[in-house]
Amino acid sequence: MDEHEIDDKKNTVPFTARIIAYYRAMETKCENPLIVDPYAERLTGDMTAYFEEHKRTRGTGDYAVVRTYYIDNHLLAPWCNKHEKFQIVLLGAGLDARAYHLESLQRNEHTLFEIDFDIVNSYKASILQDDQPLCDLVRISADLSNPAWISQLEKEGFAHDIPTFWLLEGLVYYIDQEMVISVLKAAAKSCGEGSQIFADVCVPGLTLAQFGPFMMHFRWGLNKEDVPQFFAHSGWNVTCAFADDYDQGCDVGQRGLMFVTGLRDLSRLGVPLSLAESVDDESMKIPESEIQSFSKEFIKKTIPEIEGILDIYQNNSDVGMTTYLEFIKKEKPSLKRIVKSFNNIYSIGQISSRLLRDPSTVVLHTREEEEAHIVGYLKAILYLGYCGAKGLAGEQFSITSLYKLGVKTQTINKMQSLVDLVREDLQMATS
Ligand SMILES: C[S@@+](CC[C@H](N)C(=O)[O-])C[C@H]1O[C@@H](n2cnc3c(N)ncnc32)[C@H](O)[C@@H]1O
Protein backbone atom coordinates (compact mmCIF):
# COMPACT_ATOMS: atom_id res chain seq x y z
CA MET A 1 0.00 0.00 0.00
CA ASP A 2 1.19 3.52 -0.80
CA GLU A 3 2.41 5.34 2.31
CA HIS A 4 -0.16 8.09 1.73
CA GLU A 5 -3.10 5.77 1.01
CA ILE A 6 -6.42 6.38 2.83
CA ASP A 7 -7.71 2.94 3.62
CA ASP A 8 -11.46 2.20 3.74
CA LYS A 9 -11.12 -0.14 6.71
CA LYS A 10 -8.51 1.62 8.84
CA ASN A 11 -9.36 5.26 8.10
CA THR A 12 -13.11 5.07 7.78
CA VAL A 13 -14.00 8.77 8.27
CA PRO A 14 -11.14 10.19 6.13
CA PHE A 15 -12.12 7.63 3.49
CA THR A 16 -15.48 9.39 3.07
CA ALA A 17 -13.47 12.15 1.32
CA ARG A 18 -12.43 9.68 -1.38
CA ILE A 19 -16.02 8.57 -1.95
CA ILE A 20 -17.20 12.18 -2.28
CA ALA A 21 -14.37 12.82 -4.77
CA TYR A 22 -15.53 9.72 -6.65
CA TYR A 23 -19.04 11.17 -6.96
CA ARG A 24 -17.59 14.42 -8.28
CA ALA A 25 -15.46 12.48 -10.75
CA MET A 26 -18.50 10.53 -12.00
CA GLU A 27 -20.55 13.70 -12.38
CA THR A 28 -17.70 15.40 -14.26
CA LYS A 29 -17.84 12.60 -16.85
CA CYS A 30 -21.62 12.90 -17.40
CA GLU A 31 -23.02 14.33 -20.59
CA ASN A 32 -24.44 17.48 -18.97
CA PRO A 33 -22.65 17.62 -15.66
CA LEU A 34 -24.02 19.76 -12.87
CA ILE A 35 -20.48 20.31 -11.60
CA VAL A 36 -17.07 19.82 -13.18
CA ASP A 37 -14.04 18.94 -11.08
CA PRO A 38 -11.12 18.00 -13.33
CA TYR A 39 -9.06 16.85 -10.33
CA ALA A 40 -11.62 14.55 -8.76
CA GLU A 41 -10.75 11.43 -10.72
CA ARG A 42 -7.09 11.58 -9.75
CA LEU A 43 -7.97 12.41 -6.16
CA THR A 44 -10.42 9.59 -5.64
CA GLY A 45 -7.77 7.10 -6.73
CA ASP A 46 -8.45 3.49 -7.60
CA MET A 47 -11.81 2.60 -6.09
CA THR A 48 -12.31 -0.64 -8.01
CA ALA A 49 -11.75 -2.96 -5.07
CA TYR A 50 -13.87 -0.83 -2.76
CA PHE A 51 -16.85 -0.76 -5.12
CA GLU A 52 -16.54 -4.45 -5.85
CA GLU A 53 -17.19 -4.98 -2.19
CA HIS A 54 -19.67 -2.13 -1.64
CA LYS A 55 -21.78 -2.02 -4.73
CA ARG A 56 -24.70 -0.08 -3.34
CA THR A 57 -22.58 2.92 -2.41
CA ARG A 58 -21.74 3.49 -6.06
CA GLY A 59 -25.11 4.95 -7.00
CA THR A 60 -25.81 7.41 -4.22
CA GLY A 61 -23.83 10.52 -5.15
CA ASP A 62 -26.58 12.98 -6.10
CA TYR A 63 -26.72 14.55 -2.68
CA ALA A 64 -23.01 15.43 -2.66
CA VAL A 65 -23.12 16.72 -6.23
CA VAL A 66 -26.14 18.95 -5.57
CA ARG A 67 -24.49 20.25 -2.41
CA THR A 68 -21.34 21.25 -4.30
CA TYR A 69 -23.39 22.79 -7.13
CA TYR A 70 -25.36 24.88 -4.65
CA ILE A 71 -22.25 26.06 -2.78
CA ASP A 72 -20.29 26.95 -5.93
CA ASN A 73 -23.06 28.72 -7.80
CA HIS A 74 -25.27 30.22 -5.15
CA LEU A 75 -22.80 30.99 -2.40
CA LEU A 76 -19.16 31.14 -3.49
CA ALA A 77 -19.62 32.84 -6.87
CA PRO A 78 -21.50 35.88 -5.46
CA TRP A 79 -19.22 35.91 -2.41
CA CYS A 80 -16.04 36.12 -4.50
CA ASN A 81 -17.54 38.88 -6.64
CA LYS A 82 -18.66 40.92 -3.70
CA HIS A 83 -15.51 41.05 -1.56
CA GLU A 84 -12.26 42.60 -2.68
CA LYS A 85 -10.27 41.03 0.11
CA PHE A 86 -11.44 37.92 1.92
CA GLN A 87 -10.62 34.43 3.22
CA ILE A 88 -12.21 31.05 2.69
CA VAL A 89 -11.76 28.31 5.28
CA LEU A 90 -12.70 24.76 4.33
CA LEU A 91 -13.21 22.79 7.53
CA GLY A 92 -13.01 19.07 6.81
CA ALA A 93 -11.74 19.99 3.33
CA GLY A 94 -11.24 16.38 2.30
CA LEU A 95 -10.25 16.10 -1.36
CA ASP A 96 -11.92 19.35 -2.33
CA ALA A 97 -9.97 20.80 -5.29
CA ARG A 98 -11.77 24.13 -5.60
CA ALA A 99 -8.47 25.93 -5.00
CA TYR A 100 -7.23 24.51 -8.32
CA HIS A 101 -10.21 24.90 -10.59
CA LEU A 102 -13.04 27.09 -9.30
CA GLU A 103 -13.14 30.12 -11.61
CA SER A 104 -14.70 32.41 -9.00
CA LEU A 105 -11.46 32.11 -7.04
CA GLN A 106 -9.57 33.98 -9.72
CA ARG A 107 -11.33 37.18 -8.70
CA ASN A 108 -10.08 39.57 -6.04
CA GLU A 109 -7.53 39.05 -3.29
CA HIS A 110 -7.85 36.16 -0.90
CA THR A 111 -6.39 33.11 0.78
CA LEU A 112 -8.00 29.70 0.94
CA PHE A 113 -7.31 27.57 4.05
CA GLU A 114 -7.95 23.83 3.99
CA ILE A 115 -8.17 21.94 7.29
CA ASP A 116 -8.40 18.17 7.63
CA PHE A 117 -6.62 15.23 9.26
CA ASP A 118 -2.97 14.78 8.34
CA ILE A 119 -3.70 11.51 6.54
CA VAL A 120 -6.07 13.30 4.15
CA ASN A 121 -3.74 16.23 3.60
CA SER A 122 -0.65 14.05 2.94
CA TYR A 123 -2.58 11.93 0.45
CA LYS A 124 -3.90 15.03 -1.30
CA ALA A 125 -0.50 16.75 -1.35
CA SER A 126 1.12 13.64 -2.84
CA ILE A 127 -1.35 13.70 -5.74
CA LEU A 128 -1.43 17.44 -6.38
CA GLN A 129 2.27 18.16 -5.87
CA ASP A 130 2.79 19.36 -9.45
CA ASP A 131 -0.42 21.39 -9.72
CA GLN A 132 -0.76 25.12 -9.17
CA PRO A 133 -3.66 26.54 -7.17
CA LEU A 134 -5.53 29.56 -8.56
CA CYS A 135 -5.14 31.47 -5.30
CA ASP A 136 -3.04 31.46 -2.13
CA LEU A 137 -3.60 28.07 -0.53
CA VAL A 138 -2.69 27.07 3.02
CA ARG A 139 -3.23 23.45 4.03
CA ILE A 140 -3.40 22.71 7.76
CA SER A 141 -3.44 19.29 9.41
CA ALA A 142 -5.61 19.31 12.51
CA ASP A 143 -8.29 17.36 14.34
CA LEU A 144 -11.25 19.71 14.64
CA SER A 145 -12.32 17.94 17.83
CA ASN A 146 -9.30 19.55 19.43
CA PRO A 147 -9.74 23.29 20.10
CA ALA A 148 -6.08 23.87 19.17
CA TRP A 149 -7.07 24.04 15.48
CA ILE A 150 -7.96 27.73 15.70
CA SER A 151 -4.50 28.76 16.96
CA GLN A 152 -2.94 26.66 14.19
CA LEU A 153 -5.07 28.58 11.70
CA GLU A 154 -4.01 31.90 13.24
CA LYS A 155 -0.34 30.93 13.11
CA GLU A 156 -0.72 30.19 9.41
CA GLY A 157 -1.77 33.74 8.63
CA PHE A 158 -5.53 33.81 9.20
CA ALA A 159 -6.62 37.48 9.45
CA HIS A 160 -9.19 38.57 12.05
CA ASP A 161 -10.40 41.72 10.40
CA ILE A 162 -11.59 40.62 6.96
CA PRO A 163 -14.71 38.70 5.95
CA THR A 164 -14.33 34.94 5.98
CA PHE A 165 -16.39 32.28 4.26
CA TRP A 166 -16.50 29.16 6.45
CA LEU A 167 -17.36 26.03 4.52
CA LEU A 168 -18.35 22.94 6.52
CA GLU A 169 -19.39 20.67 3.67
CA GLY A 170 -20.19 17.15 4.80
CA LEU A 171 -18.54 17.59 8.18
CA VAL A 172 -20.52 18.40 11.29
CA TYR A 173 -22.31 15.08 11.86
CA TYR A 174 -18.93 13.31 12.17
CA ILE A 175 -17.86 15.43 15.15
CA ASP A 176 -19.49 15.38 18.59
CA GLN A 177 -22.14 18.04 19.06
CA GLU A 178 -20.30 19.92 21.85
CA MET A 179 -17.19 20.09 19.71
CA VAL A 180 -19.16 21.39 16.76
CA ILE A 181 -20.48 24.18 19.01
CA SER A 182 -16.90 24.92 20.02
CA VAL A 183 -15.78 24.98 16.36
CA LEU A 184 -18.65 27.27 15.33
CA LYS A 185 -18.04 29.65 18.25
CA ALA A 186 -14.30 29.83 17.62
CA ALA A 187 -14.99 30.55 13.96
CA ALA A 188 -17.54 33.28 14.73
CA LYS A 189 -15.35 34.98 17.33
CA SER A 190 -12.24 35.01 15.18
CA CYS A 191 -13.45 36.51 11.91
CA GLY A 192 -14.40 39.89 10.52
CA GLU A 193 -17.72 41.65 9.90
CA GLY A 194 -19.84 40.14 7.11
CA SER A 195 -18.44 36.63 7.47
CA GLN A 196 -20.60 33.85 6.10
CA ILE A 197 -21.10 30.12 6.74
CA PHE A 198 -22.36 27.00 5.00
CA ALA A 199 -22.87 23.68 6.78
CA ASP A 200 -25.03 20.67 6.12
CA VAL A 201 -26.75 19.03 9.04
CA CYS A 202 -28.68 15.77 9.36
CA VAL A 203 -31.93 15.07 11.20
CA PRO A 204 -31.63 12.89 14.32
CA GLY A 205 -33.31 9.99 12.50
CA LEU A 206 -30.35 9.52 10.19
CA THR A 207 -28.08 8.66 13.09
CA LEU A 208 -30.24 5.58 13.66
CA ALA A 209 -29.51 4.19 10.23
CA GLN A 210 -26.04 2.90 11.14
CA PHE A 211 -25.19 1.57 7.74
CA GLY A 212 -23.08 2.54 4.76
CA PRO A 213 -19.83 4.46 4.67
CA PHE A 214 -21.34 7.80 5.73
CA MET A 215 -24.33 7.27 8.03
CA MET A 216 -22.46 4.59 9.97
CA HIS A 217 -20.41 7.45 11.45
CA PHE A 218 -23.14 10.04 11.99
CA ARG A 219 -23.03 11.04 15.66
CA TRP A 220 -25.86 13.53 16.08
CA GLY A 221 -28.54 15.43 14.25
CA LEU A 222 -30.91 18.36 14.69
CA ASN A 223 -34.60 18.83 14.16
CA LYS A 224 -35.11 21.41 11.45
CA GLU A 225 -36.79 23.90 13.77
CA ASP A 226 -33.86 23.66 16.20
CA VAL A 227 -31.22 24.58 13.61
CA PRO A 228 -31.47 28.41 13.84
CA GLN A 229 -31.27 28.31 17.64
CA PHE A 230 -28.30 25.93 17.60
CA PHE A 231 -26.36 28.19 15.26
CA ALA A 232 -27.44 31.40 17.06
CA HIS A 233 -26.04 29.92 20.28
CA SER A 234 -22.78 29.43 18.41
CA GLY A 235 -22.62 32.96 16.95
CA TRP A 236 -24.40 32.58 13.59
CA ASN A 237 -27.69 33.86 12.19
CA VAL A 238 -28.76 31.16 9.72
CA THR A 239 -31.60 29.86 7.64
CA CYS A 240 -32.03 26.21 6.84
CA ALA A 241 -33.84 24.12 4.23
CA PHE A 242 -34.00 20.46 3.30
CA ALA A 243 -31.57 19.51 0.56
CA ASP A 244 -34.50 18.35 -1.56
CA ASP A 245 -35.45 21.98 -2.02
CA TYR A 246 -32.27 22.44 -4.08
CA ASP A 247 -32.26 19.14 -5.90
CA GLN A 248 -31.73 20.55 -9.41
CA GLY A 249 -33.73 17.77 -10.96
CA CYS A 250 -31.61 15.06 -9.32
CA ASP A 251 -33.33 12.77 -6.87
CA VAL A 252 -31.41 13.55 -3.72
CA GLY A 253 -33.89 11.14 -2.29
CA GLN A 254 -34.44 12.29 1.24
CA ARG A 255 -35.55 14.92 3.64
CA GLY A 256 -32.91 13.88 6.12
CA LEU A 257 -30.19 16.41 5.33
CA MET A 258 -30.38 20.17 5.44
CA PHE A 259 -28.39 23.02 3.96
CA VAL A 260 -27.62 25.73 6.50
CA THR A 261 -26.43 29.18 5.41
CA GLY A 262 -26.01 32.44 7.23
CA LEU A 263 -23.97 35.31 8.57
CA ARG A 264 -21.87 35.86 11.65
CA ASP A 265 -23.95 37.34 14.46
CA LEU A 266 -22.42 37.57 17.92
CA SER A 267 -25.51 39.21 19.45
CA ARG A 268 -27.02 35.88 20.54
CA LEU A 269 -23.79 33.98 21.18
CA GLY A 270 -24.33 31.65 24.12
CA VAL A 271 -28.16 31.89 24.23
CA PRO A 272 -29.36 28.85 26.17
CA LEU A 273 -30.03 25.76 24.07
CA SER A 274 -33.18 23.71 24.50
CA LEU A 275 -32.90 21.06 21.82
CA ALA A 276 -34.83 17.82 21.60
CA GLU A 277 -31.60 15.95 22.32
CA SER A 278 -31.12 17.70 25.65
CA VAL A 279 -34.20 16.03 27.19
CA ASP A 280 -32.60 13.94 29.90
CA ASP A 281 -35.56 12.57 31.81
CA GLU A 282 -34.82 8.87 31.39
CA SER A 283 -38.18 7.94 32.93
CA MET A 284 -39.98 9.53 29.98
CA LYS A 285 -38.13 7.57 27.37
CA ILE A 286 -39.90 4.76 25.61
CA PRO A 287 -37.67 1.69 25.63
CA GLU A 288 -36.74 0.53 22.16
CA SER A 289 -37.91 -2.98 23.00
CA GLU A 290 -41.39 -1.61 23.68
CA ILE A 291 -41.44 0.22 20.38
CA GLN A 292 -40.38 -2.92 18.59
CA SER A 293 -42.83 -5.28 20.24
CA PHE A 294 -45.75 -2.87 20.11
CA SER A 295 -45.26 -1.96 16.50
CA LYS A 296 -44.68 -5.56 15.52
CA GLU A 297 -48.02 -6.37 17.07
CA PHE A 298 -49.64 -3.47 15.26
CA ILE A 299 -48.11 -4.41 11.95
CA LYS A 300 -49.06 -8.03 12.43
CA LYS A 301 -52.69 -7.01 12.74
CA THR A 302 -52.73 -4.45 9.97
CA ILE A 303 -50.13 -5.48 7.39
CA PRO A 304 -49.53 -9.20 7.89
CA GLU A 305 -47.41 -9.30 4.75
CA ILE A 306 -44.84 -6.98 6.34
CA GLU A 307 -44.84 -9.06 9.47
CA GLY A 308 -44.08 -11.99 7.21
CA ILE A 309 -41.04 -10.33 5.78
CA LEU A 310 -39.83 -9.41 9.26
CA ASP A 311 -39.97 -13.02 10.28
CA ILE A 312 -38.21 -14.14 7.15
CA TYR A 313 -35.27 -11.90 7.90
CA GLN A 314 -35.19 -12.60 11.56
CA ASN A 315 -35.31 -16.35 11.25
CA ASN A 316 -33.56 -17.17 8.06
CA SER A 317 -30.00 -16.02 7.72
CA ASP A 318 -29.82 -17.26 4.12
CA VAL A 319 -32.42 -14.85 2.81
CA GLY A 320 -30.67 -12.04 1.04
CA MET A 321 -31.15 -8.88 -0.88
CA THR A 322 -33.07 -10.47 -3.73
CA THR A 323 -36.07 -11.28 -1.55
CA TYR A 324 -35.94 -7.85 -0.05
CA LEU A 325 -35.86 -6.19 -3.45
CA GLU A 326 -38.76 -8.25 -4.70
CA PHE A 327 -40.72 -7.22 -1.64
CA ILE A 328 -39.96 -3.53 -2.09
CA LYS A 329 -40.66 -3.64 -5.81
CA LYS A 330 -44.05 -5.16 -5.23
CA GLU A 331 -44.97 -2.56 -2.66
CA LYS A 332 -43.26 0.43 -4.12
CA PRO A 333 -46.40 2.32 -5.21
CA SER A 334 -47.93 2.13 -1.75
CA LEU A 335 -44.68 2.80 0.02
CA LYS A 336 -44.10 5.82 -2.12
CA ARG A 337 -47.51 7.12 -1.22
CA ILE A 338 -46.78 6.53 2.44
CA VAL A 339 -43.60 8.51 2.24
CA LYS A 340 -45.28 11.37 0.41
CA SER A 341 -48.25 11.50 2.77
CA PHE A 342 -46.01 11.58 5.79
CA ASN A 343 -43.78 14.36 4.50
CA ASN A 344 -44.13 17.40 6.72
CA ILE A 345 -45.55 15.24 9.48
CA TYR A 346 -42.48 13.15 10.00
CA SER A 347 -39.22 14.09 8.43
CA ILE A 348 -38.64 10.55 7.46
CA GLY A 349 -35.23 10.86 5.98
CA GLN A 350 -34.38 7.50 7.35
CA ILE A 351 -37.14 5.76 5.50
CA SER A 352 -37.56 7.82 2.40
CA SER A 353 -33.98 7.45 1.26
CA ARG A 354 -34.57 3.73 1.13
CA LEU A 355 -38.09 3.63 -0.16
CA LEU A 356 -37.94 6.23 -2.86
CA ARG A 357 -34.94 4.74 -4.59
CA ASP A 358 -35.78 2.52 -7.50
CA PRO A 359 -35.03 -1.02 -6.29
CA SER A 360 -33.73 -1.99 -9.70
CA THR A 361 -30.81 0.42 -9.22
CA VAL A 362 -29.81 -1.24 -5.98
CA VAL A 363 -27.12 -3.77 -6.74
CA LEU A 364 -26.44 -6.86 -4.69
CA HIS A 365 -24.21 -6.17 -1.78
CA THR A 366 -21.98 -7.77 0.82
CA ARG A 367 -23.91 -9.88 3.26
CA GLU A 368 -23.05 -7.61 6.17
CA GLU A 369 -24.23 -4.38 4.57
CA GLU A 370 -27.22 -6.08 3.05
CA GLU A 371 -28.33 -7.08 6.52
CA ALA A 372 -27.68 -3.65 7.98
CA HIS A 373 -29.73 -2.11 5.18
CA ILE A 374 -32.63 -4.47 5.63
CA VAL A 375 -32.62 -4.18 9.40
CA GLY A 376 -32.49 -0.37 9.15
CA TYR A 377 -35.42 -0.39 6.76
CA LEU A 378 -37.51 -2.70 8.87
CA LYS A 379 -36.71 -0.74 11.99
CA ALA A 380 -37.96 2.36 10.24
CA ILE A 381 -41.21 0.61 9.37
CA LEU A 382 -41.55 -0.45 12.99
CA TYR A 383 -41.15 3.08 14.29
CA LEU A 384 -43.63 4.30 11.75
CA GLY A 385 -46.02 1.61 12.90
CA TYR A 386 -45.46 2.60 16.50
CA CYS A 387 -46.05 6.30 15.91
CA GLY A 388 -49.12 5.60 13.86
CA ALA A 389 -50.61 3.10 16.25
CA LYS A 390 -50.01 5.22 19.32
CA GLY A 391 -51.31 8.31 17.55
CA LEU A 392 -48.00 10.08 17.89
CA ALA A 393 -47.00 12.84 15.54
CA GLY A 394 -43.60 14.40 15.41
CA GLU A 395 -41.36 16.53 13.29
CA GLN A 396 -38.63 13.94 13.26
CA PHE A 397 -38.56 10.26 13.01
CA SER A 398 -36.36 9.31 15.92
CA ILE A 399 -36.64 7.79 19.35
CA THR A 400 -35.61 11.03 21.06
CA SER A 401 -38.56 12.79 19.50
CA LEU A 402 -41.11 10.22 20.58
CA TYR A 403 -41.25 11.39 24.16
CA LYS A 404 -41.84 15.03 23.37
CA LEU A 405 -44.75 14.31 21.06
CA GLY A 406 -48.39 15.09 21.69
CA VAL A 407 -51.17 12.69 20.76
CA LYS A 408 -52.82 13.54 17.48
CA THR A 409 -55.73 11.36 16.54
CA GLN A 410 -55.61 12.44 12.93
CA THR A 411 -52.25 10.74 12.65
CA ILE A 412 -53.60 7.38 13.64
CA ASN A 413 -56.41 7.83 11.16
CA LYS A 414 -53.91 8.77 8.52
CA MET A 415 -51.74 5.82 9.40
CA GLN A 416 -54.73 3.55 9.18
CA SER A 417 -55.66 4.83 5.73
CA LEU A 418 -52.09 4.38 4.58
CA VAL A 419 -52.05 0.89 5.92
CA ASP A 420 -55.23 0.26 4.00
CA LEU A 421 -53.53 1.49 0.87
CA VAL A 422 -50.70 -0.96 1.37
CA ARG A 423 -53.15 -3.76 1.88
CA GLU A 424 -54.99 -2.81 -1.28
CA ASP A 425 -51.80 -2.82 -3.31
CA LEU A 426 -50.66 -6.06 -1.78
CA GLN A 427 -53.95 -7.68 -2.65
CA MET A 428 -53.68 -6.39 -6.20
CA ALA A 429 -50.11 -7.65 -6.45
CA THR A 430 -51.03 -11.10 -5.23
CA SER A 431 -54.38 -11.53 -7.00
C1 LIG B 1 -17.56 13.50 3.72
S1 LIG B 1 -15.94 14.14 3.71
C2 LIG B 1 -16.23 15.72 2.96
C3 LIG B 1 -14.98 16.31 2.42
C4 LIG B 1 -15.14 17.63 1.66
N1 LIG B 1 -15.69 18.68 2.47
C5 LIG B 1 -15.96 17.42 0.41
O1 LIG B 1 -17.12 17.82 0.40
O2 LIG B 1 -15.43 16.83 -0.50
C6 LIG B 1 -15.69 14.53 5.43
C7 LIG B 1 -14.32 15.09 5.73
O3 LIG B 1 -14.29 15.58 7.07
C8 LIG B 1 -13.06 15.24 7.64
N2 LIG B 1 -13.20 15.20 9.10
C9 LIG B 1 -14.10 14.47 9.82
N3 LIG B 1 -13.87 14.66 11.14
C10 LIG B 1 -12.82 15.53 11.23
C11 LIG B 1 -12.12 16.09 12.32
N4 LIG B 1 -12.44 15.78 13.58
N5 LIG B 1 -11.08 16.92 12.07
C12 LIG B 1 -10.74 17.22 10.79
N6 LIG B 1 -11.37 16.72 9.72
C13 LIG B 1 -12.40 15.88 9.93
C14 LIG B 1 -12.77 13.86 7.05
O4 LIG B 1 -11.41 13.51 7.18
C15 LIG B 1 -13.21 14.03 5.62
O5 LIG B 1 -12.18 14.51 4.81
Notes on the protein architecture:
- By secondary structure, this protein is α/β, with parallel strands linked by helices.
- The chain folds into two domains: 12-276, Vaccinia Virus protein VP39 (Rossmann fold, 3-Layer(aba) Sandwich), CATH 3.40.50.150; 282-430, no CATH class.
- The protein has 16 helices and seven strands.
- A seven-stranded mixed beta sheet has the order 3-2-1-4-5-7-6.
- The protein is globular, with a radius of gyration of 23 Å.
- It starts with 11 loop residues before the first helix and ends with a helix.
- Mean pLDDT is 75; it is low at 277-281, 341-365 and 392-415.
- Bound molecules: S-adenosylmethionine.
Features:
431 residues, alpha/beta, Rossmann fold, 2 domains, seven-stranded mixed sheet, binds S-adenosylmethionine
SSE layout:
Layout: H1 12-29, H2 40-44, H3 48-53, H4 62-82, E1 85-91, H5 98-101, E2 109-116, H6 118-128, E3 136-141, H7 149-155, E4 164-168, H8 177-190, E5 196-202, H9 227-233, E6 236-242, E7 257-264, H10 288-302, H11 304-315, H12 321-342, H13 349-355, H14 367-390, H15 399-402, H16 409-430
The protein binds S-adenosylmethionine.
S-adenosylmethionine binds next to helix 1.
Short summary of the structure?
With 431 residues, the protein is α/β, with parallel strands linked by helices. 46% of the residues lie in helices and 11% in strands.
